[in-house]
Design brief:
The chain is 37% helix and 23% strand. The protein has 20 helices and 22 strands. The N and C termini lie far apart (63 Å). The structure holds adenosine monophosphate.
Length: 551
């Protein structure tokens, strides 16, 4: 541990990135396999690799109690040492100077102590912590505390640890990054690079694989151009939450988009996965789905972030997994296979609810793609995924093999009812506009959102003058204005809102143009907003999920 601390201190003492990399590489090169794995994780400022999905569960108070009592110093003295550093590790290092009985401590012992702290409950966490600190040199204690506080503060990012691994084992940095993307574990990455195990198709079940991502495009022509293919595959863009399912026999685990384990959140999936009859790693989207209809995202949200799901909630908001990719099948890794091969294998699984296969349609030219897009919209989906059938699965990559075709849902003509002074660059101008639609049944304007973007600085300056002239009430930061400035706004979605009188809020609204040509009497209505809401964000049928449409 002392060697680790010295290496970390040396890294911290130079501001030069190249020098940091060199120092760290020299240290990593001298380690055996087990220590290499540990040191790489510790150097990235973590007690455990994220793929281990473990947390220490150690509060500041336990750490400071252990250090305080070992140091034998009084509160004033400890306080003044802390003020000098404002860092728990540096504070502990100085507070413990001369107060411990240092002896050699291996990284393995550090690892074991971290595990003992993790598994102990409440107050019992202090004992293993104190007994290790007791044996550490103050410099080692300093870095040990930094590791458990999750921050080394030696100017070392995960990227630099990757660079050091590249340098230590003479491996191209791009290769290191690729291995890291797949393993999601910097310790495992270091080891594989040391032994030149670059078989990147290796997937380990129950270690989450980073999700493949899509790049946005706005037109069908652009999709074809960027994909550079004769025909493309399209799938609905389901509006749920991304999910990876690992299944081997009776063991099933789920992971979310940020690679957190979410197994207990969707018992429908974990209970039914054993009967799939195959060991699989699925990539897909969880949707709330009842009686053949996809429920609103709002309903699905009720199921998210829960450790336990009550029977009532399961019945009210049942979920399904729409499977759109297969990364492993019965011992065979499939990352490097073409999507069309992976799809064929998925189709051969004979999926049954709660597992559904994503709907696939082939588009042969931009017009065709436009038609499919329009149909998807008719079914109430916001967009379409466009995929290259020959592409491998590239974890963590936002490449051109997957595109998402999205366009603003619609634009609405609205009128500005209130304006606010801007911040920062927009200081001194009225730049934030609250806008309304007409509630025809009540015969009044009702607010439905607030827009900050879309106008040029020159337009904002002109509008500021105009709004100052038509202010009806000046509330300092906010001014109510005579409702006469009509705007056309684009937006991505609509939500229910308690903040706005209309009961709805447009999300991410952008001003498309100022509609001086349009009288206020002709702006859009609350009914139109409600209609769009029901159409796109209400419950909907996603027909024949498992069907493969013929071209
Ligand atoms: P975005 O969140 O806008 O970057 O869009 C990408 C997300 O769309 C993915 O992370 C998935 O959660 C989701 N998605 C929905 N349907 C699909 C599909 N058929 N293929 C891939 N991703 C999909």
């Amino acid at each position: 541990m002392l060697n680790f601390a010295r290496a970390a201190a040396a890294v911290g003492s130079t501001p030069a990135t190249l020098e940091k990399t060199r120092v760290l590489a020299a240290y990593l090169r001298g380690l055996d396999d087990d220590d290499l794995r540990r040191a790489a994780v510790f150097m990235s400022g973590r007690a455990f690799s994220p793929s281990q999905r473990r947390t220490l569960g150690l509060g500041w108070s336990t750490v400071s109690k252990a250090v305080s009592s070992l140091s034998g110093r009084d509160e004033d003295e400890l306080g003044s040492i802390f003020r000098k550093h404002s860092d728990l590790g540096d504070w502990a290092g100085e507070a413990l100077d001369g107060r411990t009985q240092p002896e050699p401590v291996s990284l393995q012992e550090v690892d074991e102590t971290l595990e003992a702290i993790r598994t102990a409950r409440g107050k019992a966490k202090e004992a293993p912590l104190a007994s290790l600190l007791q044996r550490l040199d103050p410099e080692a204690a300093r870095f040990f505390i930094k590791i458990i506080s999750g921050e080394l503060r030696i100017g070392l990012s995960e990227g630099l640890v990757e660079a050091a691994i590249a340098d230590a084992f003479e491996v191209p940095i791009t290769q290191v990054k690729r291995v890291h993307l797949i393993t999601g574990d910097i310790g495992e990455t270091a080891l594989r690079c040391k032994h030149k195990q670059f078989d990147t198709t290796t997937v380990t079940l129950f270690q989450p694989v980073r999700f493949m991502l899509a790049s946005p495009v706005e037109t069908a022509a652009e999709a074809f151009e960027r994909m550079g293919a004769g025909s493309v595959w399209t799938e609905e863009k389901y509006d749920g939450v991304r999910c990876q399912l690992h299944r081997q026999g009776d063991r099933v685990e789920l992971f979310s988009r940020d690679l957190k384990e979410t197994t207990s959140a969707f018992p429908e999936l974990t209970e039914n996965a054993p009967s799939l009859g195959h060991d699989v790693l699925f990539d897909g989207e969880v949707l709330a789905h009842r009686d053949g209809r996809v429920l609103r995202f709002f309903e699905l949200q009720r199921r998210l972030g829960r450790k336990k799901v009550s029977t009532e909630l399961r019945e009210e908001v049942p979920v399904v997994l729409v499977v759109f990719d297969l990364l492993w099948l019965d011992g065979r890794p499939l990352l490097d296979e073409a999507l069309e091969t992976r799809r064929r294998l998925m189709e051969g699984l004979g999926l049954e609810a709660p597992f559904l296969l994503a709907r696939l349609e082939v588009a042969t030219n931009p017009d065709h793609l436009d038609r499919i897009f329009a149909e998807t919209r008719e079914r109430g989906n916001e967009g379409l995924m466009v995929k290259d059938p020959l592409s491998p699965y590239t974890p963590g990559r936002r490449g051109l093999a997957w595109l998402k075709l999205k366009r603003p849902l619609a634009t609405l003509d609205v009128v500005v009812t209130a304006v606010e002074w801007g911040h920062g660059k927009r200081k001194g101008v009225l730049s934030d506009y609250t806008f309304a639609v007409m509630d025809t049944s009540a015969g009044r304007l009702v607010n439905v959102g607030k827009a900050y973007t879309g106008l040029t600085d020159a337009e904002i300056a002109t509008m500021t003058k105009r709004f100052l002239e038509i202010t009806t009430e000046d509330h300092g930061h906010v001014r109510l204005v005579k409702p006469e400035v009509v705007l056309e706004v684009a937006f991505d979605s609509i939500q229910h809102s308690t903040r706005h009188k209309s009961g709805y809020a447009l999300r991410f609204p952008r001003i498309v143009r100022i509609r001086d040509d349009k009288p206020v009497g002709e702006i859009d209505t609350r009914d139109r907003v409600a209609e769009l809401y029901e159409r796109y964000f209400g419950e909907k049928t996603v027909p024949a999920l498992s069907e493969v449409a013929e071209t």
